[in-house]
C-alpha cells in the first residue's frame, strides 16, 4: 500500500509523515511537494518525493500515479482553494487512487465560520468523485497563537475581539496523528470526523497560559471587531487581513470554535495536548 500526503513540507504535512514513518516503510510513502528543495530531509529518510502544484493538473496526475491512499491537505490560498482541490481530486481519480482523506473544518456544512465555504465545496467534490473517502474536519490549531506569545512578551496583553468565546484547540501534532490513523487503518471510509481539543478554553485562560510562558503578567483586553481592525492596521497589517482576523475573532465570540466532540482523542487513543503544553512547545520551536 502506497500512501501520499500533499503539502508534505508544510507544518501539518510534515507531522503526518513523521507519524506514518513510525509504522510504514519510507519507500511506501509519497511526499507531494511544490518545492523539492524543501524536501531534502524527507528524501534522506527514504520517502518518495514528487513535485506537483495544486494549480497544475498534469503534474498532480503524475505525482499520484501508483498511490493507493491520499491525504489532501487543504491549500493556503484562500479564494482559490476549490479549483485547486478539484485539480487534486480529479488527478487522484485519473491516477487510480482508491481512497482520499481531506482536512476540512469543523461543521463545514452547517457553520457560519468565515473559512467554511471552500471546505464545504471541496467535501461535495470529493463525494461526487466516487472515491472512497474520509473527511477530517479539523478544529483550531493551538499553534495559531504563537504570534500571540511573542506579542504578550512585549506588551503584557492579549488584545482580541473574541469576547467570552471559547476555543477547543488542539496541537497540530494531534491532528496529524489522527490523519495518520485514518490513512493507515480500515473502517474509516465514509466517515466524517469532527476533530477538536478535549477542552474549550477562553481568552482569560489563554492569558493565564501566556503568563506562565512569558514570565510576566499577561491580561486579556477584549475589544470590538472595529477596534481590533484599527489596532492591527496601526501595527502595519493591511485592511483586508485585519478585517479577516477580526472576523475570525467574531466567529470565536459566536462559539464557532468551541465544539468539543471527543472524536480527536478517540482516534489517537490519548487526550489532546493541553493549551499550555502545546503553546510552550510551539513558542520554543519558533524562537
TrEMBL record:
<dbReference type="InterPro" id="IPR052718">
    <property type="entry name" value="NmrA-type_oxidoreductase"/>
</dbReference>
<feature type="domain" description="NAD(P)-binding">
    <location>
        <begin position="7"/>
        <end position="183"/>
    </location>
</feature>
<dbReference type="InterPro" id="IPR036291">
    <property type="entry name" value="NAD(P)-bd_dom_sf"/>
</dbReference>
<dbReference type="Pfam" id="PF13460">
    <property type="entry name" value="NAD_binding_10"/>
</dbReference>
<dbReference type="InterPro" id="IPR016040">
    <property type="entry name" value="NAD(P)-bd_dom"/>
</dbReference>
<protein>
    <submittedName>
        <fullName>NAD(P)H dehydrogenase (Quinone)</fullName>
    </submittedName>
</protein>
Amino acid at each position: 500500500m502506497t500512501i501520499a500526503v500533499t503539502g508534505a513540507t508544510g507544518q501539518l504535512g510534515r507531522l503526518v509523515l513523521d507519524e506514518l514513518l513510525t509504522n510504514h516503510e519510507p519507500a511506501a510513502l509519497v511526499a507531494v511537494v511544490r518545492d523539492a528543495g524543501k524536501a531534502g530531509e524527507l528524501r534522506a529518510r527514504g520517502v518518495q518525493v514528487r513535485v506537483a502544484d495544486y494549480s497544475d493538473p498534469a503534474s498532480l496526475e503524475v505525482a499520484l500515479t501508483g498511490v493507493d491512499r491520499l491525504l489532501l491537505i487543504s491549500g493556503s490560498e484562500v479564494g482559490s482553494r476549490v479549483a485547486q482541490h478539484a485539480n487534486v481530486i480529479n488527478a487522484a481519480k485519473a491516477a487510480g487512487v482508491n481512497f482520499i482523506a481531506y482536512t476540512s473544518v469543523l461543521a463545514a456544512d452547517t457553520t457560519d465560520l468565515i473559512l467554511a465555504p471552500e471546505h464545504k465545496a471541496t467535501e461535495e467534490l470529493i463525494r461526487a468523485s466516487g472515491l472512497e473517502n474520509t473527511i477530517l474536519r479539523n478544529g483550531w490549531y493551538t499553534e495559531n497563537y504563537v504570534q500571540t506569545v511573542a506579542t504578550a512578551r512585549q506588551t503584557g496583553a492579549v488584545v482580541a475581539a473574541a469576547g467570552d468565546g471559547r476555543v477547543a484547540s488542539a496541537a497540530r501534532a494531534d491532528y496529524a496523528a489522527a490523519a495518520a490513523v485514518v490513512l493507515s487503518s480500515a473502517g474509516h471510509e465514509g466517515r466524517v470526523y469532527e476533530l477538536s481539543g478535549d477542552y474549550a478554553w477562553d481568552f482569560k485562560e489563554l492569558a493565564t497560559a501566556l503568563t506562565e510562558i512569558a514570565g510576566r503578567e499577561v491580561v486579556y483586553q477584549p475589544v470590538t471587531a472595529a477596534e481590533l481592525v484599527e489596532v492591527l492596521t496601526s501595527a502595519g497589517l493591511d485592511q483586508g487581513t485585519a478585517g479577516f482576523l477580526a472576523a475570525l475573532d467574531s466567529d470565536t465570540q459566536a462559539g464557532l470554535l468551541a465544539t468539543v466532540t471527543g472524536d480527536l482523542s478517540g482516534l489517537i487513543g490519548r487526550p489532546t495536548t493541553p493549551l499550555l503544553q502545546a503553546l510552550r512547545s510551539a513558542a520554543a520551536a519558533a524562537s
